[in-house]
Amino acid sequence: MSGGGLTRKYLSHFTTKSATIPRSRGWMFGGTKWSLMAAGGPEQLHKYVDRRHKKYGPIFRETLGGGVDGVFISDVNYMRQVFQLDGKYPVHLVPEAWTLYNKRFGTSRGLFFMNGQEWLNNRRIMNNFLLKGDMSYVNEACDVAAHNFAQLMTPKDLEISLYKWSLNTLIAVLLGARNYEEYVRTNTYDLRELTKNVKLIFDSSTRLEQLPVKWASHNNWKQWTNFVQCVDIALDGATDLVMNLMDVKYDGGLLERMMSAMPKSDVIKVIVDLILAAGDTTTYTMLWCLYNLAKHPELQNNLHIKSKYCPDTKVTSYRNFIKETLRLYPVAPFVTRVIVEEPVTVGPYRIDIGNIIILSLYTSGRNASLFPRPHSFDPDRWFTRSPDMQKATLHFAMGARSCIGRKIAERQLESTLEMIVKKYHVQLEVDEDIEMIMNMVVVPSKTLKLKLTPR
């Protein structure tokens, strides 16, 4: 979660009608920024907010500094209400560095940055291709990419390898499974530089978000110029890749569907943003899955022989493993909405226009009343599938602005996890507990070193 990309018109205060929302205490200037810094800084934001919920309850209000005032919510029913109250044009937060870059360089971006009618028109088109109807073309593409990755997987430079896997999966979906296999055999397009720069965007964004971004931009601080360079290279590389894909066979894939329904210019910018946005979330979700595989070798065997979780439905057992990984290691531990159309009522509280709502998935996923032994990794718990458990772990969000790539992500994670478990026994080179830290998304505090033993 970042308070970055919010403009001042969205920073109005609550009216007295919402004064009953508990508020954490902070300094007159800077809000509770200094409390956060004392608790470990932005890297520990998820744990800091979790402690605030324990102190103030399932809903509280806090200013973390920079004038950005948020209402934090961990109650599952309140969270679902927030999504049900989404207006026609729901708005979420975008890191300030990204929006400032777009404004400064006149860059037109895809769905993640669109709002209003432009967003709605393009979102409706993409919904038809990625969230509705027959998704067999997506499933086939994800399976082919998963098989390709499992065959070539190496623990060396694991994060970069996973970024490349995520990008290859999207290419497979764009071209269709059959065309992707031909593309891999015959195309010499080098994905390594693009992969590295997509990762560097998020690394440089994190460093920049800890500074006054506008000031860093105005004075061309090194952190800003590094960020601009990464974005420039990644945008150019992603655009070149899309143009390259348009010159090969893509019948049966997402690209064919988009070209039939959207202007070419919109196709390019929507796909470019899919390339840039999908990399970190799926990469680190898979990384945490591999960590859990290594920490729980008995679960690897059970998944492999299909005897414990779900003997008749193999995919469900892998899905439960992924759900449990996301519950404990939510790569996006905060989901945000900005109230822009009219005041809303969440539970007994009125929340006015201009306020930010922040859903605390790290905290809701550790709710002991919903998840007994909340800190234990137990995929079996998902066989109950209670509605409240589902509400507490809305990692792809829900409603009109839910993750457009949800079905791609779910299938590629399941397929790849299955391929890896069938082919390898996964171990940690050094058996140690690894902490979660915020780095735009939740990442391991140490480099994850794995040992892969063929089965």
Sequence of secondary-structure elements: HHEEHHHHHHHHHHHHHEEEEHHHEEEE
- What fraction strand? 5-15%
Poorly predicted ranges: 1-19, 305-311
Number of continuous helical runs: 18
Assign the CATH topology of the domain at 108-295 and 405-455. Cytochrome p450
- Rounded to an integer in angstroms, the radius of gyration calculated over CA atoms is 22 Å
How many DSSP E strands?
10
Question: Which CATH C-level class of the domain at 108-295 and 405-455 is it?
Answer: Mainly Alpha
Q: What sort of overall outline do the alpha carbons produce when their principal axes are compared? A: globular
Note down, in words, how this protein is organized.
The protein is of the alpha+beta class and 455 residues long. It has a domain at 108-295 and 405-455: Cytochrome p450 (Orthogonal Bundle). The chain contains 18 helices and ten strands. It has helices spanning 33-38, 45-56, 76-84, 96-105, 116-130, 136-152, 158-175, 177-186, 192-209, 213-218, 222-246, 254-259, 264-295, 297-305, 314-328, 361-364, 387-392, 406-423; strands at residues 59-63, 69-73, 334-338, 344-346, 349-351, 356-360, 424-428, 436-439, 441-444, 450-454. The strands form four sheets. The protein has a four-stranded mixed beta sheet. Strands 4-5 form a two-stranded antiparallel sheet. Strand 4 (344-346) and strand 5 form a beta hairpin. Helix 9 runs antiparallel to helix 11 (222-246). The longest helix is centred in the middle third of the chain and has 32 residues, at 264-295. The radius of gyration is 22 Å and the shape is globular. The model is unreliable at 1-19 and 305-311 (pLDDT under 50).
